[in-house]
Q: What sequence folds into this?
């Protein structure tokens, strides 16, 4: 079945780069997503990448997609304390409706000052 | 302001006492969904709806009901809550048929069943 795997925790120092990794099983996914959940809040779409792209950059965020290895990563440059949150990788599996996202368990990013 | 609202935000109840968590969106989205979030388990989908009067089970539907009588509302009903339904619940909505279809999430409802 479909599965999205992420490590559960990541701790970095302020100003360093953070890299959050994700592996997924369904190579038919058209889009892959990163959602961010700040403490006490719902999830918000952070960024997404179309499956025919290898990389997408958006200010401090860089998304890398390796379709061969089914590996997705999110790099946050110059990580700030405000980036402390849980980051979820998500995909829409083959045959799924566009709303049926499959989420990973989330990676909790802690940023130390 | 475009948003998904949920009520209540916090609820403590007892086993067996029926409850409803409301969800409303003002973006005219076709798709609405309920998730529960538990430590170490991530988000799991309970039920979803593709449009009015169209609902379907997600991954963990047991013990829950939903209805979609109007496009904007998608209440979650627990007919006889049990302690294993203690969790953080999120409602979400999105358009269908578009491009990357961002899902918009409500702020969450923290439910404790004693």
A:
């Amino acid at each position: 079945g479909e599965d999205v795997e992420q490590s559960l925790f990541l701790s970095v120092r302020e100003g360093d780069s953070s890299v959050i990794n994700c592996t997924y099983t369904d190579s038919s996914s058209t889009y892959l997503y990163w959602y961010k959940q700040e403490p006490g809040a719902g999830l918000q779409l952070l960024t997404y990448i179309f499956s025919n792209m290898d990389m997408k950059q958006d200010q401090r965020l860089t998304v890398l997609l390796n379709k061969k290895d089914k590996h997705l990563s999110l790099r946050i440059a110059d990580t700030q304390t405000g980036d402390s949150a849980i980051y979820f990788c998500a995909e829409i599996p083959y045959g799924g409706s566009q709303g049926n996202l499959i989420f990973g368990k989330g990676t909790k990013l802690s940023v130390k000052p | 302001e475009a948003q998904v609202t949920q009520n209540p935000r916090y609820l403590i109840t007892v086993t067996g006492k029926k409850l409803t968590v409301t969800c409303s969106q003002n973006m005219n989205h076709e798709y609405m969904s309920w998730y529960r979030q538990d430590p170490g388990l991530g988000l799991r989908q309970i039920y979803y709806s593709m449009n009015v009067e169209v609902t379907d089970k997600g991954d963990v539907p047991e013990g829950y009901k939903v209805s979609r009588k109007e496009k904007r509302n998608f209440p979650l009903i627990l007919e006889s809550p049990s302690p294993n339904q203690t969790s953080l619940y999120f409602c979400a909505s999105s358009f269908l048929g578009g491009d990357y279809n961002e899902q918009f999430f409500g702020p969450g409802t923290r439910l404790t069943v004693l």
The radius of gyration of chain B is 13 Å. The longest strand of chain B covers residues 42-51.
